[in-house]
Amino acid sequence: MEGQQSPEEARLEGARVLVTGGAGFIGGRLVAALLEAGAEVVVADQRPHPDPAVRSVVGDLCDPDVRKRAVGTGPDGIVHLAAATSVLRSIEDPAGVYRLNVEATAGLLELAREQAVRRVVFASTNAVTGDVGDAPINERVPLRPLTPYGATKAAAEMLLSAYSGVYGMRACALRFANVYGPGMRHKDSFVPRLMRAAATGTGVQVYGDGRQVRDYVHVDDIVQAVLLAWRKGVTGPLVVGSGRSTSVNDLIEIAREVTGAPIPVEHVPPKAGEMPAVVLDISAARALGYEPRHDLRSGLATVWPDFAPAHRTGEGGAHGASEESGGRVES
Ligand code: NAD
């Protein structure tokens, strides 16, 4: 990521950035990039940031006092990543997911307004737009979420829109595609499941015929988009993906090439309501200077070391699956 932007553009010297969810998968990469660019970072997360040198506010952001402590650190802006990210959980417990994804977001925006915080970059998802067949999804496609998770993200986007409209905040909602990259060993989305299958010599289950297409974007490209949105003070929604759609079958084929493992496939009936296609139009992000740098071959090669048996030390073998939070479905 570094070295491809001009140094002037890349530097964020002295910018004070509050990153909610900064101990998570995307947050971890983002915090490292922000620090590298010279920013002063505070992480607000229910888990401590793994690097004790990173200033952290540890607690549940559903708690107003935790939000106060976080925004009370005096940031110039907030990158709001903390969320309940499981689609499955959102179906089982929509009210619980609403509390964090909508209420806590509203609470953060209120504090930001009171304290004249100028920038908010929010992690939204392409799941806000629902099923539009294989038509490319751009920012003008109407919001029509199909799950409570998507609905909470759409609701948060509406709040952001109002706060940037009325209070002059530079608030943007980056609609991420399926994000993958290093640091997702404990996740249960498709890419880590593939990598685990390759590492343990087991197979993967594929819903339906595997011809459904998705946009898989590398976490470092997501980080690039967040930094860009921050530097340029982007407002409104922005679709952020790789700009390429790949079928599940092709993804498996690339994973076989990268890992050298056969990865047998078991086809199971399609999930109800699963979208046959997600095709993202990233031309608006491109017009702002965003350019994805990873394709799936180079991208999966950055993920494999987290899973490959030769790289796994101190874990008592290649089977890390017992650590997973079962049933978690990523957006
Ligand atoms: P993650 O689960 O790895 O990270 C989320 C972080 O938020 C975790 O560190 C968690 O501890 C923290 N958190 C959760 N609930 C909290 C609470 N109540 N109080 C304080 N902290 C809390 O998720 P991620 O993949 O890094 O996703 C980051 C953001 O990007 C989320 O908003 C997610 O909805 C969005 N997003 C992710 C993807 C993807 O494919 N990973 C796709 C679209 C959108």
TrEMBL record:
<feature type="compositionally biased region" description="Basic and acidic residues">
    <location>
        <begin position="321"/>
        <end position="331"/>
    </location>
</feature>
<dbReference type="Pfam" id="PF01370">
    <property type="entry name" value="Epimerase"/>
</dbReference>
<comment type="similarity">
    <text>Belongs to the NAD(P)-dependent epimerase/dehydratase family.</text>
</comment>
<dbReference type="InterPro" id="IPR001509">
    <property type="entry name" value="Epimerase_deHydtase"/>
</dbReference>
<protein>
    <submittedName>
        <fullName>UDP-glucose 4-epimerase</fullName>
    </submittedName>
</protein>
<dbReference type="InterPro" id="IPR020904">
    <property type="entry name" value="Sc_DH/Rdtase_CS"/>
</dbReference>
<feature type="domain" description="NAD-dependent epimerase/dehydratase">
    <location>
        <begin position="17"/>
        <end position="234"/>
    </location>
</feature>
<feature type="region of interest" description="Disordered">
    <location>
        <begin position="311"/>
        <end position="331"/>
    </location>
</feature>
<dbReference type="InterPro" id="IPR036291">
    <property type="entry name" value="NAD(P)-bd_dom_sf"/>
</dbReference>
